Amino acid sequence: METFPNPNPGRDYLIQHIAEEFTSVCPKTGHPDFGTVVLTFVPDEICVELKDYKLYLHGFRNKGIFFEAVTNKIFDDLHAELKPRWMRIETIWKGRGGIRSVVRIEDAVEGYTGPVPPYFG
């Protein structure tokens, strides 16, 4: 994934990218799953380039994967690439059959005491 240097590495500040048109496929039914992916992080040395991030997310469009698995995959990939001071992924799924789902994963480097925002959805 393409990145660029953090312009203010000496400061703890939050970046939030909200991808409102995320799509994957239910591996059980083959029906499309529509959701919002909220990436919130405190960068350390690098930030993610948005066009490349968008293309990464589009890679899940036709993939059969459960909500929990795709959220963990995105978190693991981005956390490994960005090595942020703190990061949260939230996936907020459109309702189907009267049930809406939200999956959240969060992690911080040891000793991090900077900002942590409220949840998006």
SS-based class? alpha+beta
Q: Could you describe the largest sheet, including whether it forms a barrel?
A: 4 strands, antiparallel
H/E topology pattern: EEEEHHEE
Can you give the mean pLDDT? 95
Helical amount among residues, as a percent range? 10-25%
Number of helices: 2
Distance between the termini: 27 Å
- How many β-strand runs? 6
Strand order across the largest sheet: 2-3-5-6
CA radius of gyration is: 15 Å
Shape: globular
Which stretches are low in confidence, meaning pLDDT under 50 for 5 or more residues running?
A: none
Account of the protein in words:
The chain has 121 residues and is an alpha+beta fold. The chain is 21% helix and 40% strand. It contains two helices and six strands; from the N terminus they run ββββααββ. The chain has helices at 50-58, 67-82, and strands spanning 3-5, 15-25, 32-42, 46-48, 86-96, 99-108. The strands form two sheets. It has a four-stranded antiparallel beta sheet with strand order 2-3-5-6, covered by helices on one side. A two-stranded antiparallel ribbon has the order 1-4. β2 (15-25) and β3 (32-42) form a beta hairpin. The longest helix has 16 residues, at 67-82. It is globular and about 45 Å long. The two termini are 27 Å apart. The relative contact order is 0.24.
